[in-house]
Amino acid sequence: METLNLLAMGFEQALTPEALMFCLLGVSLGTFIGVLPGIGSLTTIALCLPLTFHLEPLLGLIMLAGIFYGAQYGSSTASILLNVPGSAPAAITCLDGYPMSRQGRAGIALFMTTIASFIGGSFAILLLVFFAPVLANFAISFSAADYFSIMILALTAASTLSVGSPVKGLAMVTFGLLLGMVGTDINSGQFRFTFGIPALTDGINLVALAMGLFGVAEILNNLNEGKVPQAGQEAITLKNMMPTKDDWKAFRYSCMRGSLIGSFIGMLPGTGPTIATFMAYAGEKKLSHHPEKFGHGAVEGISAPEAANNASVQAAFIPTLTLGVPGDAIMAVMLGGLLVHGITPGPQLVTTDAALFWGVVASFWIGNVLLLILNLPMIGLWVKLLSIPYRFLFPAVLFLICIGVYSVNNNRVDVLLTLGFGVMGFFLNRHGFASAPLLLGFVLGPLIEENFRRALVLSDSSLATFVERPISLVFLVLTAILLVFSLWRKTGTTHSRSQAAP
Amino acid sequence: MYLRPLLTFVLTLLLTACGGENSGVAGDPASYPNKPVRVIIPFGPGGLADVTLRLAGEPLGELLGERLVMENRPGAGGVAATTTMLNADPDGHTLIVLTNGTTIAESLFEDLPYNITEELVPISAVAWFDLVLLVNPDSGYSDLQSLLAARGDDLRIATINPGSTQNLTAELFTSRAGMDSATIIPYRTTPDVLGALLRGEVDLAIDAYTALKGAIDNGQVRPVAVTGEVRNPAMPDVPIAAEAGVEDFVVTGWNALYARAGTDPAIIARLNSEIAAVLATGDIKARFSELGVEARGNTPEAMQQRLLDDIVKWRGVIQAAGIDTL
Amino acid sequence: MLPTFLLALLGLGAAFTAFSYDVGSFTGMGPGFFPLALGLILFLLGGVILWQDRQPPEAIAEQAHPFAWRPFAAVSAGILAWVLLAETTGFFVAAACQVVLTSLALPKPRWRSIAIMAAVLATGGYLLFVTQLGVPLSAVG
Predict the structure, then answer these.
(1) Cα four-point dihedral sign B25, B30, B34, B38
(2) Which residues of A touch C17 (CB under 8 A)?
(3) CA A106, CA B225: separation in Å to the nearest integer?
(4) Paired strand residues for B133
(5) Which end of chain A is less enclosed by CB atoms within 10 A, N or C?
(6) What is the pLDDT of residues B84-125, one digit of tens each?
């Protein structure tokens, strides 16, 4: 088959010593950066971009891509061990990963997230290899109405994210949606909630918000309670990294579902891994027979989001490489790197520069394998990290958060915002308001509004467009089903409880 | 118990902090440059301003004898970048990239604490680029006039976000072409604009040539006009706006290097001539045109005039279009 | 109680500000429509939560761990120190200040360990972020 031939050629390219070296460099750096809170793959890639100008395009691209998906492997490490996410999408992994760590299952959690990341990434790569053109065209056909309906579905996912009062969860989502409004309205150019501050016209920085809400707030909370979180001190052997049979059972299908959701969301330009991980988590919770497990160390709560995370990040390459249309900001930076070498990305890249295209694709898979090999032994190391006394750990984490957030835009205001959101998150958490719904609302808000309004402009103010377009209709129906299902379940349980009571 | 050492510590710090202000030294042309030259870029890495300056920066660094270090300071209105710039000494070791986007920001952000026309002085332009008007090749329109005639008031134009050069160009276009009731639909990024055009949601897309060069070259989109003063050598068959029937509609984007006011004129003159030399080399010319931009320098006076003209021009467009300002 | 109240107030404030942007209609939304709606919803939700939580304040306060000033002040001061000092006094001073101040969150600070940690973090951070990754901060001033 033609594809397999090309793939073989790609592997040939990617398995040269130099290619392997840069791949290893990229994925190692990526994992390391992923573990560090604040600084993310975008910043790192941007900062490493100049280094690649002196390299052959293939090598440079392999390294940058390695940083990109490598970071997704590392970002859940800090989430699980410290309840401080390495990046915004990893915030979801805190919800069940950290409880697992408190239960002494940190090694297992890390092991499973690594495997899940590998599966998610591999799945998306398979899609890329065999179906890229079809999928790319499919993805590009999504119009504003379709995006809106998907985002609405994602929004209903928010209701699954809060443990405790649903009204408070709803309030947090709304608050998040409102925070997303700060900045410039895309449809009209109107500055909203900027109060004359130019720095706010670009909106609130997602990294600052996530690090503050989840990182700083968590540390403030720990310090306030005087509780010093220390997991068990036993050495990590292969044996206690191994999940139980029940764990594997829970893992299997949740991982697949996460990969699917992640790939789908990832290939749509403009969406991002944060939405993918949140939707994967919500999907698992809704489908589970024991939703009360979530938030207390449910395996599905980490396997699905992690698979989704990596899948979405790999799938983002689909529109990028086949259409020359970057799926998000990171891709745009990488394409900028290509431009410097005089390579213009686009559909013709696949044919005219097939060696480059397939070499990069092959390196994705090699990179994922390398990450698997790299990360597994490191698990013991990371868990050891927990035995560092908290009095040294938390200043270090705060330090990393500060410099990490700063490095995104080289802007001190972002760090100030992190503190602000940390304080806010701390007080809100104390009164039963969860942070995860706020983050989701923040990410979704602008997308929902923008696409709703644009859909109406495109349809000349006809609301029918949301049901006339097949994709949009499908997602609206799914949303409706989901809502009905949740309500039915809720009344079902109250019904059976009231029957059992007397 | 530990209060006193702590206080001393903090006081020392504050004093050091106060001493860290710049001394306003103008710099000595004879020894210039004597350390690496910072180039502040008000955009993130990978963007056009970034890439062109990095490409030109290498040979320029060699000519000067010190390397150029790119410093990305993105942020709305170029405020972060400009603020950083104005904190540096006017000795020519810190330069900033201004673009036509800067001239737009002058009108979008009215209350900035600085005045770029007075506090910054030009060195030279570096790159120039056209914007292109594009249609979907399957749409059946062979040229701009037939498109305008067929669509009339229903015309839909896709651009990136409001306040960008592309978006304002579209506003200017609608008024010059007499199509004031056309709908301009802003999208977040160029790929979104491309997608919109490919899906047939819009009739026309206006974006920078560089951004969509790939799509143009492989036939995904068809250019019906360029916005420059003369035809673009990369697309010799594409008419300029005037030839396509739209009068008084010329937009060219640019990047330029600026220094702080008070920098020794000899330093500026030297930079100008070195930049001109770099931009004249075949290698730079070729690499820039692969990107879809033209490598061309000019005199500081010409650059400043261009800056001032553009500020006036875009202010007019912003006011006419009723775009919100801060 | 207080956060809920503040949230509700925020919602109202947002709605009020949003009103000054062009609101438009449901099918022809202006920039003010969505924020206005969200602000009002938040305000209403705040009201609902206040109603649901209508217990005497003492009962609520018991649920959360009592608030301790020291860690809060230390962490805030530390991060603020970074924000204020990073670009003016250089990386090392800012980092050192930040680490020292945040370490004060826990009682009985061990000065020697803190000093060592500050030195290690500042040096390591500088090498990684400034030297290797090119974050534009100078070492001193």
Answers:
(1) positive
(2) 193
(3) 61
(4) B206, B225
(5) C
(6) 899 888 888 999 999 998 999 888 888 888 898 999 999 999
**C contact test, residue of A35, A170, A181 with most C CBs within 10 A:** A181
Chains in contact with chain B (at least 3 beta-carbon pairs closer than 8 A)? A, C
3-state class (DSSP) for residue B157 = strand
Greater confidence, B180 or A323? B180
| Closest residue in chain C to residue B40, using alpha carbons only | C136
Q: Which residues of chain A carry a pLDDT beneath 50?
A: 231-235, 495-502
Beta strands B252-260 and B222-226, pairing class = unpaired
Domains of chain B: 37-128+252-321 (3.40.190.150), 130-226 (3.40.190.10)
User: Closest residue of A to B43, CA-based?
Assistant: A409
Touching partners of A (3+ C-beta pairs < 8 Å): B, C
Q: How far apart are CA C129 and CA C131, in angstroms?
A: 6
If one counts the domains in chain A, the total is 1
CA dihedral B142, A346, A43, B192 (to 10 degrees): 40
Residue range(s) defining the domain that contains residue A122: 2-500
ipTM of the complex: 0.89
Closest-CA residue to B222 (of B210, B208, B205, B236): B205
- Residue B15 has a pLDDT of 46
pTM: 0.85
pLDDT tops 70 at residue C101: yes
**B184, containing H or E segment:** strand B183-187
pLDDT at A128: 85
| CA distance linking residue C69 with residue A13, whole number of Å | 59
Q: Six-digit token pair at B191?
A: 């790929």
Whether B216 and B235 have beta carbons less than 8 Å apart is answered as yes
Task: With CB atoms and an 8 Å threshold, state whether C109 touches B2.
Answer: yes
Phi, psi torsion values for B208, nearest 5 degrees: -70, 145
Taking the C-alpha atoms of residue B112 and residue B119, their distance in angstroms, rounded to an integer, is 13
Q: Please state, as a whole number, how many other Cβ atoms lie within 10 Å of the Cβ of residue B264.
A: 18
Is residue A219 within 8 Å of residue A225, measured between CB atoms? no
CA A366 from centre of chain: 21
